[in-house]
Design goal:
CATH superfamily of chain A: q2cbj1_9rhob like domain
Distance between the termini of chain B: 20 Å
Strand content of chain A: 25-35%
CATH architecture of chain B: Sandwich
Radius of gyration of chain A: 18 Å
Shape of chain B: globular
Number of strands of chain A: 12
CATH class of chain B: Mainly Beta
Number of helices of chain B: 7
CATH superfamily of chain B: q2cbj1_9rhob like domain
CATH topology of chain A: Jelly Rolls
Largest interface: A-B, 33 and 30 residues
Strand order of the largest sheet of chain B: 1-10-6-12-4-3-2
Number of domains of chain A: 1
Number of domains of chain B: 1
Number of strands of chain B: 12
CATH architecture of chain A: Sandwich
Distance between the termini of chain A: 27 Å
Shape of chain A: globular
Helix content of chain B: 10-25%
Order of helices and strands of chain B: HHEHEEHHEEEEHHEEEEE
Largest sheet of chain A: 7 strands, antiparallel
Structural class of chain B: alpha+beta
Oligomer: heterodimer
Structural class of chain A: alpha+beta
Chain lengths: 263, 249
């Protein structure tokens, strides 16, 4: 495993972020320079991801959440094993958060932090997303897409005082082809409209993972479980690997966040 | 569990305000799949870092790795020196226990050291910190070297213990690794070896979970019980590395 970073261009990019008025208005000053994040991203052995806590200035986060309170959401992926409600907001320039989410240097910041490169700079999809009380969870999947390849996903969580027992944990998996199943394979079709309780507390699963437009039987090993804590940003790369992930079912609380895809 | 928020204390001077409440970290610790471990960035205040830097500049570091395939030098922090004022403060010890969900006994032993790993540090063989006869409960690390890069090495690696299998052959031997550069850690995601000793050498089958870059002002906190946290450190490439290391038993 060899890593290389730290060119003069990187220093210039770090300075540009530190001087940028939009990033300075939104981000906690500790996070303006994404260079230390890139170092962490480069050494992840299986899934390139980052967890950035206390991303936004608290007053900006409050404003952002207040402006989203009036949004009306609809089922995100009806009939699929992904239980959430969402609304697309990347054309809503009236929402206060759009200043950040539609800002080209923010997109570049995310890509830089992960070590990804954007093929369609300036293009992004932003969704405000809620998981209703007792949501069933998200099946193990990749966000990779044949039609319009995604470079990265950025997820910002909004729920206050989120506890482990509230559920809705983001799980990251190392996935390898399943050579022979020694337990019954978890099949997508068997879990339609059902709570994905098997995700809770499992370290390994033999499951049909949702790959690019098909289901693939895999051996999945849990790498990490991330609590959707308020003002936590999670970045996932889809260029270095498929970055298989899932979300555990929730209890009675509404899980709330913003998800952004970059291309 | 929640600290007195409005009382001025040493914690306010040393910890960044967003970390003052340990409760959210406890939730993270519960979620970790292979033992309670926390990685917290931008942990201490600038004022605290400046004090630590000044203290490190005055210290003499002596080898603390005799007979071990570890490569480090350290300087003990006592309860009454300028770092002990914080690192041996009851409130800090309470904060650590709360963040990791450990119950705090009436008395606990705290060992704090300022650590220096030399420029070409050989790395640390995979091991656990709570050895038989040394019932440690918590390990805390705060990294201090500025602008540390992935390519500088010194990565903290976390491992999952897998079931042993007949096909594994002979384990990598602890004794063979003494005074060797542990380049094997840079290249293998799966290992079959004698877990770190010297008097505790069970054959163990490991698979890598994660690697953590020792960036300045990042804290890594481990609860050493009830689960074991098997970890190692990759060799360094040309830079001295500094950290505060604390064990609580």
């Amino acid at each position: 495993m060899q890593f290389s970073s730290g060119s003069l261009d990187d220093a210039a990019f770090g300075s540009a972020c530190k001087d940028d008025p939009v990033l300075r208005r939104w981000l906690h000053r500790s996070w303006l320079d994404p260079r230390p994040l890139l170092e962490q991203s480069l050494v992840r052995p299986f899934v390139r991801y980052l967890v950035v806590d206390d991303l936004l200035l608290p007053e900006r986060l409050d404003e952002l959440q207040e402006s989203y309170a009036s949004l009306s959401v609809s089922p995100d992926y009806p009939d699929l094993n992904y239980d959430a409600e969402a609304v697309r907001i990347d054309r809503r320039t009236d929402l206060v958060g759009s200043e950040l989410f539609l800002h080209p240097l923010w997109h570049a910041w995310v890509a830089f932090a992960l070590g990804a490169s954007l093929h369609r700079p300036g293009h992004s999809v932003v969704r405000y997303r809620r998981h209703p009380p007792f949501s069933r969870g998200f099946w193990i999947h990749t966000d990779r897409d044949r039609r319009q390849p995604k470079a990265a996903a950025a997820m910002l969580y909004l729920g206050r005082d989120w506890h482990f027992r509230d559920g809705g944990l983001l799980q990251l998996w190392e996935v390898s082809p399943l050579l022979h199943a020694d337990t019954p394979l978890l099949r997508w079709d068997d879990y339609r409209e059902r709570r994905l309780s098997f995700l809770e507390g499992a370290h390994t699963l033999q499951i049909e993972a949702a790959a690019i437009e098909e289901l693939v039987p895999v051996q999945a090993r849990l790498l990490e479980q991330i609590v959707p804590r308020r003002n936590r940003l999670v970045l996932l790369d889809f260029q270095a690997g498929p970055s298989y992930h899932s979300i555990t079912p929730t209890q009675e609380r509404v899980r709330e966040g913003v998800v952004q895809w970059l291309y | 569990m929640s600290p007195a928020q409005h009382r001025s204390s040493r914690l306010d001077h040393w910890l960044r305000p967003e970390h003052r409440n340990p409760r959210p970290f406890f939730e993270d610790a519960l979620a970790r799949p292979y033992g309670r471990a926390l990685t917290i960035d931008h942990f201490l205040t600038e004022e605290a870092l400046a004090r630590i830097d000044a203290s490190f500049a005055k210290r003499t570091f002596t080898p603390d790795n005799e007979g071990l395939p570890y490569d480090s030098r350290s300087s003990l922090v006592s309860a009454d020196d300028e770092l002990g004022e914080f690192f041996h403060d009851r409130e800090w010890i309470e904060w650590l226990h709360a963040a990791l969900g450990q119950s705090l006994p009436d008395r606990c032993e705290v060992i704090t050291s300022a650590r220096m790993n030399p420029k070409e540090a050989l790395g640390f063989w995979p091991h656990v910190d709570d050895l038989p006869g040394i019932p440690r409960r918590i390990a805390a690390l705060i990294y201090l070297t500025p602008e540390w890069r992935a390519e500088d090495g010194g990565l903290l690696q976390l491992w999952q213990e897998l079931p042993a299998a007949d096909s594994l052959g002979e384990p990598l031997r602890w004794a063979d690794q003494l005074h060797q550069r542990l380049d094997v850690l840079d290249h293998q995601r799966e290992l079959y070896l004698e877990l770190g000793g010297p008097w505790y050498l069970p054959k163990t089958h490991l698979r890598l979970i994660d690697q953590i870059v020792p960036v300045r002002n990042r804290a890594v906190l481990f609860a050493l019980q009830p689960e074991r946290m098997i970890h190692s450190v990759t060799p360094s490439r040309g830079r001295e590395r500094y950290a505060i290391l604390q064990w609580i038993s």
